[in-house]
Amino acid sequence: MTKFWTLLTALHTGAGPVVMLVYPLYASVVALETATKVDDEQWLSYWIIYSFLTLTELILQSLIEWIPIWYSVKLLFVAWLVLPQFHGAAFIYNRLVREQFKKHGVFPHQQSKPTKPKILHSIFPHREGHEAHSH
């Protein structure tokens, strides 16, 4: 029985990097090489959500250490984000992240005057003659 738990623990530990990094890395490269933008949106959304999750973990590390099932919950959540059946990352981005960025006027193409929060304006200053366009 001990060998079974050791194997199960090893699989659980190895699943994290595969689900959270290896597969998304591979899928992102494939998405960039396809003509469609749907997969680009999914994988850009994934990296945005994953970055937020990682930053949150860094900030709340001392609290998260007291939650014994955190890694398992995170693994399940990230699996939902990456599995093609769900498109969870695009869903979260469209429903939560995009709305918050719109609400706070972060998108420069929405208004004629840049209304970025001051901290973002100091980090990403608007340069005259340059438009913020993707592709």
TrEMBL record:
Coiled coil: none annotated. Its main location: membrane. It is a multi-pass membrane protein. GO terms for cellular component: membrane. It comes from the Eukaryota. It is found in: Membrane. InterPro entries: TB2_DP1_HVA22. The chain crosses the membrane at residues 43-63, 75-93. Keywords: Membrane, Transmembrane, Transmembrane helix. PANTHER family: HVA22-LIKE PROTEIN, HVA22-LIKE PROTEINS. Belongs to the DP1 family. This is HVA22-like protein. The gene is BnaA03g47030D.
